[in-house]
TrEMBL record:
Residue segments, region Disordered: 134-162
Source species, domain of life: Eukaryota
Domain PH: 377-483
GO cellular component: cytoplasm
Protein name: Spermatogenesis-associated protein 13
PROSITE patterns: DH_1 (PS00741), DH_2 (PS50010), PH_DOMAIN (PS50003), SH3 (PS50002)
Length: 574
């Protein structure tokens, strides 16, 4: 495979010996946002006078602005969930007032009524600092109002100038991002492929995923952005059509985001050996890349796809309805939000199929196709009584997945063991609610009952729940299952066959030598206990958090009760 070459650049080969001549340095993991914040700190971003193209005023760093008494606010890129009361928790889109920014990785800030540390890589500085949210402006009273007026006096800007600032930020960060992708492809991947003794093809595929495809796509996207960018009057730029034209292409980020956790694990294993640490650091130095480790660069695509909706939302805020690009910007904002949600949904489903595969392996006597051939998510589960035409009752545990309903029977001695008893195609049946009382068709007295009637044959299945609340849950679960199937079809949600096979293969390997029983399925880990308050000290956290969130907001769907139901159904554990 040949390395990718930039349009205006050239390739230069280096041997491994030349790479090792560079002095290796040990770096803390970072991310694109830290790099961009550093760029802001070094005065790269400039405010332009609306009457000319020349630079008018360099925007000081957050630390300098705070020292001057100005109010600095940042916007959260992702949710930051923490159990430490010395860290500031927030959701994507929240605005945090930055009170202290002398540390590169951790800043001190206020959100609502709490002040605490938060990771700088989880936020982006607001482009137009003079327009403050109510939550910030109301928290400091008169002192805050005085600071706000000072900030506005220092940086008076018109609506056009505000839009200019956002446009320029989008263009500048896009160019920085392309530079990062180019450095990864030319500085790391090219060198790794030359040393087959250190890296296998599978290892490189795991670590870098499809980042080369992303690089090719982003170069085309930036080229179109540059065509729509008005250098003389940036506020007149019409970039909304670029996002709409390439919205389907952004779907390639789904594969990368799904692969990223595995890439972190593989890279972490390699970095335990000094030769790999030296090799990757030498690659960085020879490529003249900024002071960020490889895992930080590999995080940039994940960060970037989440940042687009935030940037477009801010651009829409400063675009008047009379502007020629207003409708396209509004449509682009919704489109990029949908892209982020789709990526998040695909990742959630990939995580779900691993659990479902392990569940199937735990079932005794499974027959027919694998559950993953048609399903990727458990909607609901619980005990029901199935009634036959002869009036016989069968106690079963039912698992409702998308497209199919699986029935199992408990072992008489080992209640944690389940036997496969059959399944039903939910695409071929329709649910019918049955009122309490005697049913004329079955000549039986019913209570908390419902039927599943085949759409193609006269076959009818009758079920009874123990309580009215249980029946209501099953009726709602059926409606949810039909809705999710429809949504998956509309979004084009489909798990690749290789991912399904890999999930089943891993589940079968993990299940070898273990006794059957669904109580052996993994459960949520308990929360990590924290020391008493009086034993804690207010100190800057030592490392950047490792969790990454792949979407801007919580998905509309409610969380699955899959493992919670398993926990409730398990009467005892070994």
């Amino acid at each position: 495979s040949s390395a990718l070459v930039d349009d205006n650049g050239s390739e230069e080969d280096f041997s491994y010996e030349e790479l090792c001549q560079a002095n290796p340095r040990y770096l803390q993991p970072g991310g694109e946002q830290l790099a961009i914040n550093e760029v802001l700190d070094s005065h790269m971003y400039q405010i332009l006078d609306s009457r000319s193209c020349g630079p008018l005023l360099a925007l000081p760093s957050p630390f300098q602005l705070i020292s001057d008494g100005s109010v600095v606010c940042a916007e959260a890129l992702w949710d930051h969930v923490t159990m430490d009361d010395q860290e500031l928790g927030f959701k994507a889109g929240d605005v945090i007032q930055v009170l202290e920014a002398s540390n590169k990785d951790w800043w001190w800030g206020r959100n609502e009524d709490k002040e605490a540390w938060f990771p700088a890589s989880f936020v982006r500085l607001r482009v137009n600092q003079e327009e403050l949210p109510e939550s910030c402006s109301s928290s400091r009273g008169e002192e805050q109002d005085e600071d706000s007026s000072k900030a506005r006096h220092k940086h008076p800007e018109s609506q056009q100038q505000m839009r200019t600032n956002v446009i320029r930020e989008i263009m500048d960060t896009e160019r920085v991002y392309i530079k990062h992708l180019k450095d990864i492809c030319e500085g790391y991947i090219r060198q790794c492929r030359k040393h087959t003794g250190m890296f296998t093809v599978a290892q490189l595929a795991t670590i870098f995923g499809n980042i080369e495809d992303i690089y090719k796509f982003q170069r085309k996207f930036l080229k179109d952005l540059e065509k729509q960018y008005n250098k003389e009057e940036p506020h007149l730029s019409e970039i909304g059509s670029c996002f709409l034209q390439h919205q389907e292409g952004f779907a390639i980020y789904s594969e990368y985001c799904n692969n990223h956790p595995g890439a972190c694990v593989e890279l972490s294993n390699l970095m335990k050996q000094s030769k790999y640490r030296h090799f990757f650091e030498a690659c960085r130095l020879l490529q003249q890349m900024i002071d960020i480790a490889l895992d930080g660069f590999l995080l940039t695509p994940v960060q970037k796809i989440c940042k687009y909706p935030l940037q477009l939302a801010e651009l829409l805020k400063y675009t008047t309805q009379e502007h020629s690009d207003y409708n396209n910007i509004k449509a682009a904002y919704e489109a990029m939000k949908n892209v982020a949600c789709l990526i998040n949904e695909r990742k959630r489903k990939l995580e779900s199929i691993d659990k479902i595969a392990r569940w199937q392996v735990s079932i005794v006597g499974w027959e027919g196709l694998d559950i993953l051939d048609r399903s990727s998510e458990l909607i609901h589960s619980g005990e029901l009584t199935k009634i036959t035409r002869q009036g016989k009752s069968q106690q079963r545990i039912f698992f409702l997945f998308d497209h199919q309903l699986v029935s199992c029977k408990k072992d008489l001695l080992r209640r944690d063991m389940l036997y496969y008893k059959g399944r039903m195609d939910m695409d071929e049946v329709e649910l019918v609610d049955v009122e309490d009382g005697r049913d004329k068709d079955w000549n039986l007295s019913m209570r908390n009952a419902f039927k599943l009637v085949s759409r193609t044959t006269d076959e009818v299945h009758l079920f009874c729940a123990r309580k009215q609340e249980d029946k209501a849950r099953w009726l709602q679960a059926y409606a949810d299952e039909r809705q999710r199937v429809q949504e998956d079809q509309q979004m084009g949600m489909e798990i690749p066959e290789n991912q399904k096979k890999l999930a089943m293969l891993n589940a079968q390997k993990a299940g070898q030598g273990k006794s059957k029983g669904y109580s052996s399925c993994p459960v949520a880990l308990p929360h990590q206990s924290l020391p008493p308050v009086h034993q804690r000290h207010i100190t800057v956290p030592t490392s950047v958090p490792q969790q990454q969130v792949f979407a801007l907001a919580e998905p509309k769907r409610k969380p699955s009760l899959f493992w919670h139901t398993f926990h409730k159904l398990t009467p005892f554990r070994k």
